[in-house]
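Human:
I keep going back and forth on a fold encoding question. Comparing notes only helps if you start from a blank page. Show me how you would write down a chain together with its backbone fold. Write it directly below this note and I will take it from there.

Assistant:
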Amino acid sequence: MTQTDAHALRDDYLARLDEAMRDLPHGVASDIRGGIVEELEGLDAEAMAARIARLGDPAAIAREAQDEVPDSPRIVVAAPPAPRRPSTSTRGFAITAALTLSFGGFIVPVLGWFVGAVLVSLSALWKTWEKVVSIVVPFVFGALSLLLLQFMSFVEFASSGSSSGSSPGPDDVTNNPLVPSLSIWHLLLLFGFLLIPASGLWLLWRLRGRTAA
């Protein structure tokens, strides 16, 4: 065999070795290849064939080197913590808001109802139309009832004042606007005020089984 044959044997072996070591870390493969190149350097064809035979199959060399490579550490990425729901999305906040709307005005007149209305509007567990109904309807009904009561009292007072030269009869005393008596207008006003706690209790009823989306 000629020197050309020796180079051909070496190049063929190294090519197969490179192919077998594709999956090895670059540093490990480079060290193995460099050592084998040194062993094959300067050999004639016969010695080259004998040395290649002793080295063995490149695939076996690659497997042995792979077994000696330590496993790379496994990096475990912790899942990010679940975002906390805002407090306005909790049932506790919604229940507090509804109770404040119902009875806050009796504890702290006007301001208590206003705070309850703000809390109800902030809650995420009710639909917009439910919030509007619970806040606006009792207020509007109570305000209209109060205006009507004042208007009817004024009309009754004006009617009684226009009559002159006659002594008041029993009916006149009974119907005197200066002596309040229970009438339909008083009942309407009372009903309007009762709508305020009823609206909060209605919200609690609508809250059944609901959770934040």
In short: Confidence is low (pLDDT under 50) at residues 164-174.
